[in-house]
Design brief:
The strands form 2 sheets. The protein has a 7-stranded mixed β-sheet with strand order 3-2-1-4-9-6-10, sandwiched between helices. It has a 4-stranded mixed β-sheet with strand order 5-11-7-8. 40% of the residues are buried. Helix 7 runs parallel beside helix 8. It is globular, with a radius of gyration of 20 Å. The protein has 2 domains: 229 residues, Spore Coat Polysaccharide Biosynthesis Protein SpsA, Chain A (Alpha-Beta Complex); 64 residues, no CATH class. The protein starts with a strand and ends in a 16-residue tail after the last helix. The chain is of the alpha/beta class. 38% of the residues lie in helices and 16% in strands.
């Protein structure tokens, strides 16, 4: 039987937290539900304390300084506190479905598999949240990848380097990973990225570990969409969006160089990073930089980002 630690970062999630915890604690495979309370301003801490006192599986932790450090740092603390040999993640405003670990039970019989990911669904909790989400994302009913894959194909697929479109990413709610697989390269979330730290983690994980698709045609978890989802608040290709993407791809570009990943993948990461770098420049300097980059790397014109800018 799998022994799984489910890590839930908690910040201002009082309205949803009990449902999330119960959805994880229901599984025999889940030996502990680790709540990392990140200095909420609502009564999330009190609910965490109540849940941990009522349910033996639930364990509550805070950062040593009891401060707010973001979801990345919270998940890292959860990884350090986890005692099971497998780790899964869940956002505090989401929940697991009864089939959450069905694929893992079979796939992890193969010892070479480090991690499994699946599809997730979407539930609209408010009308405003639904409007904002549907205006920004094409995958509204099922967030998944386009075909079964494993190993290097997943890493290349996430970077758009496969012959057919794999999909841009997958959600942490659908991922289960062997804890020991994180250690050789000390794979952790980038605590300096307040958003997109999950995307960076997934790309690094796909490179260093042997991942495999699980159930990709049916949801195993549900993402709750409401008025306060941060991901829906940013207008695509607005200056704030481009700045956040720049920080993500700048970090990945440094990682790719430090780890000497294959040249094709390294160059793709660089071109995406550079396209967002160029998008943040202004005026005549911007066009001089674009011209210089195009002369050096004509392939940058093939990126879907195309030095995007935002007019309003």
């Amino acid at each position: 039987m799998l022994h799984i630690s489910v890590i839930i970062p908690v910040y201002n999630a009082a309205e949803f937290l009990e449902k999330a915890v119960q959805s994880a604690a229901q599984f025999d495979e889940v030996k502990e539900v680790i709540l990392i309370e990140d200095k909420s301003t609502d009564n999330s801490l009190e609910i965490c304390q109540q849940l941990s006192s009522e349910t033996p599986k639930v364990k509550l932790f805070q950062h040593p300084d009891q401060g707010n450090h973001g979801a990345g740092a919270a998940r890292n603390l959860g990884i350090e506190k986890a005692t099971s040999n497998f780790i899964a993640f869940l956002d505090a405003d989401d929940y697991y479905l009864p089939n959450r670990f069905d694929a893992e039970k079979e796939i992890f019989k193969d010892s070479k598999i480090d991690g499994v990911f699946n599809a997730i669904g979407t539930e609209y909790l408010t009308e405003k949240g639904k409007e904002e989400f549907e205006s920004k994302f094409k995958e509204t009913s099922l967030s998944t990848v386009n075909y079964p894959a494993e190993g290097e194909e997943i890493f290349k697929g996430l970077l758009g380097l496969t012959t057919k479109t794999f999909g841009t990413s997958f959600h942490l709610n659908s991922l289960t990973i062997r804890k020991e697989s994180l250690e050789p390269h000390h794979i952790r979330f980038n605590k300096d990225l307040r958003v997109h730290q999950d995307t960076e983690f997934i790309i690094k994980l796909a490179y260093h570990c042997h991942l495999k698709t699980g159930c990709i045609d049916k949801a195993v978890a549900i993402r709750g969409v409401h008025d306060n989802n941060r991901i829906t608040k940013i207008i695509k290709y607005s200056p704030q969006y481009n700045q956040r993407q720049f920080l993500l791809w700048n970090s990945l570009n440094s990682w790719a160089s430090d780890n000497q990943i294959p040249s094709e993948s390294r160059k793709r990461i660089y071109l995406i990073y550079k396209s967002f770098d160029l998008s943040l420049k202004k005026g005549f300097v911007k066009y001089c930089n674009i011209l210089g980059e195009v002369l050096k790397n004509p392939e940058i014109l093939k990126t879907k980002y195309r030095f995007t800018y935002y007019n309003k």
